[in-house]
Specification:
By secondary structure, the protein is mainly α. The chain has a single domain, classed as Cytochrome Bc1 Complex, Chain D, domain 2. Helix content is 31%, strand content 3%. The strands form 2 sheets. Strands 1-2 form a two-stranded antiparallel sheet. A two-stranded antiparallel ribbon has the order 3-4. β1 and β2 form a beta hairpin. α8 crosses α9. The radius of gyration is 19 Å and the shape is globular.
């Protein structure tokens, strides 16, 4: 399972009206007409420069705002991942957690905070969780560039709609719990060649050079923290099945559904950075996702079942109330 990062390759944020008239089509694009945004076709000028800088922040996050950059004031990310570690192909790959269409659906209600959040706030949520860092200044050049990029790749998608292919495909829930031990064998056979047997990935250079990873770490101190969306089993299993090993597409999955569930359980059973005050997430407990791997819960099911499933009994119990 190889996820390559940076300009050459990507891992495992989820996520994000154009200002110009006529920027949106009349219907959301379907699977056969997935947008192919090309920033090189923009005319030269300040807008193109902003979009290009936004793209660079997505692709080379570690080299612009990562923890190893020379300017300490720019160290907003707490790990050396890139945004496209999870949002594949600079956030444009269908069913690879793309940004296409995200610009027009924010502000949006977020269950994690139980309030309406702006796109900027959503981006900063990823910086604090997936990037294990701190929030970007809302009015800073980096945030403006990221929003510009989100707007650009969403051109042609009507405001308030999501094209088919945003997010990841849903996997059928298993009747059994996911098995991390079985997942370890899947990892050894399908993932370790890229992400290494210890899950620490392969760097583009050496530690301290701010060049990030060719294949990012899936756990350990330089990975996403426990509050990231990818730390939830349903989310990570769907992503893995549709996109891994690296180069896989949702049209031709390589791993079986069971393998995706089990290897996701194995990866998410490994140590990673902590996130403080997780108990404050999802203040409306009735809206908390069934696979949120941390208490408190509104039900009587065990933490282990919330981490590994099976999930249908939890869902049935929620519907009964």
């Amino acid at each position: 399972m190889g996820i390559k990062s940076g300009g050459a390759v990507v891992l495992a944020l989820t996520a994000a009206i154009a200002l110009c008239p006529g920027a949106f089509a009349q219907k959301a694009p379907g699977p056969s007409e997935w947008p192919q945004p090309d920033v090189s076709k923009l005319p030269a000028g300040a807008w193109k420069d902003a979009v290009l800088y936004g793209r660079k922040l997505i692709v080379e996050t570690y080299g612009v705002v990562g923890p190893e950059v020379s300017n300490k004031a720019m160290r907003f990310a707490g790990n050396n991942l890139s945004c496209q570690s999870c949002h594949l192909n600079a956030g444009t790959q269908q069913f690879g957690l793309p940004f296409i269409g995200v610009f027009g659906v924010y502000p949006a209600y977020m269950t994690r905070e139980d309030r309406v959040r702006t796109l900027e706030e959503r981006i900063n949520g990823c910086f604090e969780r997936s990037m294990n860092g701190k929030a970007l200044p809302i009015g800073g050049e980096e945030m403006k560039a990221l929003v510009a990029y989100f707007q650009f790749v969403s051109s042609g998608v009507p405001v308030g709609t999501s094209p088919e292919g945003r997010g990841t495909p849903s996997l059928p829930l298993m009747a059994r719990a996911a098995d991390p031990q079985r997942g370890s064998e899947v990892y050894k056979n399908s993932c370790a060649s890229c992400h290494q047997s210890d899950g620490q990935g392969q760097r583009n250079g050496i530690k301290g050079d701010a060049k990030g990873y060719q294949y990012p770490p899936l756990w350990g101190p330089d990975s996403f923290n426990e509050g990231a969306g990818m730390h939830r089993l349903i989310s990570s299993a769907g992503f893995i099945h549709a996109n891994m090993p690296f180069g896989t597409t949702f049209k031709a999955p390589v791993l079986s559904e069971d393998d995706a569930w089990d290897v996701a359980a194995y990866v998410n059973s490994q140590p990673r950075p902590k996130r403080a005050k997780l108990d404050l997430d999802y203040p409306d407990r009735a809206r908390k996702p069934v696979d949120a791997p941390f208490p408190p819960f509104a039900d009587k099911f065990s933490l282990t079942q919330h981490r590994l499933g099976p999930y249908q009994p939890i869902i049935d119990a929620q519907r009964a109330h």
